[in-house]
Each structure stands twice: as C-alpha cells, then as structure tokens.
Amino acid sequence: MKTFVKFGETTHEVELTERLGELIVHLDGERCEVEYAEADKLGQIVLIHDGKSYAMSIEGGPHDIAITIAGHRYDCELEDERERAANLAARAANKGGGLLKAVMPGVVVEVLVQAGEAVTEGQPLLILEAMKMQNEIGAPGDGIVKALHASAGDAVGAGDKLVTLAAPEAE
Amino acid sequence: MFRRILIANRGEIALRVIRSAREMGIESIAVYSEADARALHTRMADVAVPLGGKLPSESYLDMDKILAAARETGAEAIHPGYGFLSENAEFARRVAEAGLAWIGPPANAITTMGDKIISRREMKKAGVPCVPGLVDPVDDVEAATREAEAIGYPIAIKAAAGGGGKGIRIVREPSEMASAFRTASGEAVASFGDGRVYLERYLDSPRHVEVQVMFDGHGNGVHFFERECSVQRRHQKLVEEAPSSILDEESRRAMGEVALQAGHAVNYCGAGTVEFLWSGGEFFFLEMNTRLQVEHPVTEMITGVDLVREQLRVADGQPLGYGQEDLSIRGHSIEVRINAEDPFNGFLPSTGVLHNLRAPGGPWVRLDTAMYRGLEVGLEYDPMLGKLIVWGADREEAIARMIRAIREMNVGGVHTSLPAALQVLMHERFISGDYDTHFLEGLTIESPKEYEGLAAVAAAIYRHHQARRKALAPSAAGRSGWQARTRGELTGHVGRAGVAAASEVQP
Q: Is B291 a catalytic site residue?
C-alpha cells in the first residue's frame, strides 16, 4: 500500500509491503532500509537507518501526524491511495470561495464586514481576541461575504466557522 | 526568618519559590484554582489551599480569598511570583495591612513604575535617559496623528497601564495610525481595563537589554548585571541570555549604575528589573518590572546567586550583606521559553493534553517547569509551560549545550516554541551575536529538509501499526463502554467516601 505524506508543498510517497512478517519500505520509489521500533506506547520511536539511530517522537494519526526528530518538528498530512482519490474528487467539487474558520479559540471583538459585501484578499474581516491579543483576521482571497457565522461578543473554538466567502462574480 | 510563606501563584514560578523556601527550611503554602487541583505546585507545597473558581479572577486574582488563605494557614509572608497580583499595588498594601510581609517592592514603587507615563516622568526627573516621546496619554486618533509629526516616525503606541507586549502597536506612516490606535486602545481595555495610550519614537534595530537589581530595606542596592532579551516576537521573549554580547565593561557599569539610580529614585526594595532599549551605542529606560522575572535564572547561573533566597532575606528585613564589588560574571547562560504555541503557524496558542514528556539532562542543564504527563494545556492561563536553562564556560559552549538539550527534550500533545528556539540558536546571526529585537519576527520557522524523508517513513510505518492495532483491538463501542463504567464507579466511590468523612467530623 502506498501512503502519500505531505509536508507543506512537498509530498513523499512511502510504500510499505509486508513480506514474511517484515516491512519492506520504499521512499519515493527507492528501497529504504530501516529498522523501526516503538520504545513505549506514548509515541517514542527508534528508527535505525544507514547505521544511524534516530530517536523520534510521534503523535496524532491517522491523517495528521507530527514527528519530532533532533528537536525539529515535522507536521504532515497522510493519505493512502484510496483516500487520495476520494479527496481529489472532493476538492474538484468545491471550487472558488471558501470557508474561514477560527484557527484558535477566542472571542470575536468586532465584525468589520457585512453579508453581501465584496472583499479583497487580506482585507480584515473581523477582530478575534485570544490570549488577550487582538488579531485581525483577513480574507484568504477575493470574494463576496456570503454568510457570517459569528458576531461580536461570541466565543469561538478552534475550527469553528467564522465567515463563508463566495467566489467573486465574473465580470 | 519566616517559618511559613504563601505563594500566590501557580505553574513553574510557584515551584521555583517552593524550592528555595524548602532549602531554607521555610514551609510553603500553595493556593490553587479548580483547574489546578492536580497541578504540580498544589502537590509540591507543604500545604495547599483551594481557592475554587475556574477563572483567574475567581482564584489567583482574588485578593480576599488569598488573604483569607494566608490568615487560616498562619502564613507570615506572601510571594506573588510574576503575573497575577505581583504588580498590583493595592494587593501589596493589603498584605502589609494584614500584618504580613510582602515579598516584593513597596506599593508606592509598584504604582510609580506600573504606570508608564508616571514612571517616565519620574525617571526623567532622576536623570535616567528615556526614549523621545510624549509623557501624557493621547485622547484620539487626530491628536495622535498631530503629536506623531512632532516626535517623528516610526511611532510606537503603548498602553499606559501596559506590560508584556499587550496593547503595543508600531506605526510607520500616518495612514496606519487610525487602525493601530483602535487596536492598541482596544487591547489595552481588554488587558488592563484602561484604554489610555501614549506615543513614543520607535527605535530601529534596538536591542532589549535589562538589568537585574536587588535592594534591601536599609538603603543598599546592587545589580546582578544584564540580560539580553532581544529574541522576541510581539514583545514576548523567546530566548534570553546573560551577559549581553553588545556591552563592554564600561557600558555594563554605566547601565548598572543607571538601573540603581532608577531604583533609588522610587525607594525600591526587593528584586526588580530595569529594562533598557539599546540602539546605536545609546541606551534608554523602557520600564521597570517590579517583580521577579521569568528569565531570572540566567542571572542566577552567571552570578551563583539564588534570587528567590535574596528576595526572602530582604523581605525578612535582613541587609544584603554584600556590595557591588563582591559580584562578578562567570561564564554564559541561555534560557529558552517553552510556550504552548505553534511556531509554524504564527505562534498561535496550542492546546491539548501532554501525553508524552521527555526531559533533557546532563551537566549544567536546568529545567524549570510545572509540566507533567497528563497536564491539560488550556487557554485559561499563560501559554508558558516552562523554561530550559543552560550554563557554559563561554557563549559558544552555552549555545552548543542548549542545542544539545533541546534535541533531548520532547513535549508531546501540544505544539511548543522549542523548534523555533532551536532554529534561533543555530542561526548565524544569533551565533555572531549581531541581532536585534526584529530578528525573530523576520525569521520563517521551518524544519530542515534533511530529516523529512525519514519523518515520512516513520509516519507511514506508525500509521500502519496504528491501523493494525485498531483492527486487532476489541470494537471501539465495547471498549469505551467499559471505560465509562469504570470511571463512573470510581467517581461514585470517591463521592461516598467524602460524604462519610464529612459526617464523621460534624456529628
């Protein structure tokens, strides 16, 4: 089974094949000799590769995994072949506009736009206060405010819907 | 010396105070909120008093509850830590009125230094150099725009009652004034309940250098040299070091003397920090923090002085017993803050349960933290989870040691600022010592490509094993039902025991 591991803009392809109870690993099409052991059930991993030992910490899964190696952190999104096909189809069906979600929990201090208003990329849509800091939340792209899901004074959690933008009307 | 002190704080600073107190044979009384019933400071203190309440205003900021706890437990003094009530003059006054010793400066010094406008006026009077700007607050955008012309751009808008980077906005040209004024004033209201702001010149390429001072109640004062805190973002510090690589012996002495001058001007007593902006060989008074600071350990590491012990001695009325000539700098120290925030995503706060914790060790590595496995990191408190501190014979050795220590450490369950700190420590500008307060803001936090392939392999194998375990495990519904039942029984048992105990005590 192939797994696509995406770090920001780069995607690596990892193929795992089980043979006689052993995992054969291919990284981006090339054979990769690794020994993998879980040191505990908390995500402490030892990976031996090319004669070197790598102590890693892993958390998350199955679609979002974070790996810490030598103090560096790698956040990746994973999908296998079946999931990739399904996700591609879903993305194709949802073009233009977009939904703006709160990336952190906080309180909406002020909403700066109204439904139906045309906005440009980066234009502040609302002010969200979190950790006593006021943050202007800007439009991710040009569009028209289709719906406002929060108003001033509302407490929102991470991932809560804030604003729905519709794609700008073609001229 | 006191026999019992109450610590009106939580987290790593509460532990820090408990540790020194215990070494001095002093008992510590912890107070804790509802959320902190299992916190380390609650467990580590000799006595723990519940304050109840979920919000800070119902617990660590509730003066009545804290004073009542001190009375009930026979505490002789209160240590406020940093944050919360540490710079609250009214609380300092009420502690003294209750007949307790306040482990901090006199209320008047807190009032003067706590208001940026009054403090600047006093410092100018005492001959302490200040940044060009207004002494009085500005009322509205129009007045701000007018005054800004006279001071000269770029301008910093700051909250009169401010601190910790809250309510500060930088304005580079008049067109930005309206929006910056509105957000700065709004933030000031939200953070301090006081929307007054003032303007001053914003210095380009400045460095944040601060001096640790300590005064006793007999008119003696010393400084413990400087800390370099220029690695900051939105005025929140990330990496601190001592000594600063920009000061020579002469400027170090000059800055120390000005810091003592500032303290004497307000009849200071106890530990404090005088913050300066260093720009082009000049330094200007920024503010004085009338408390122990987060980054105090780097000073302890290079001077060998336990600052909390000194705070307790001075609050007990003892003289310092040493002078400036008895103090010297040995080696170099660096501190890194471990904040629950995502450095790859604009340092936004990160929440979760710490399911995994691996602490670094080895020579000259110190970890001050209240983290434990199972700790729920929420948004109700400051995102700082702890501090990693190292000492080295020189700066180069200290940097190498800190990189080594960060690589040993792992905090699982939340994002932390550690990868950003690691990138800073490995950056050529930091290594050269030539950096300013904009250094961190200009840095894109990213992980080196070198480990990406291995990370991908590990992630894929981990997912593979996870899926396998899930397939072999009993069905999810069955398992969670069993867990829920167990939890229910446990709670019921504890509840019954509690009722029984209460009825025995009160027949």
A: yes
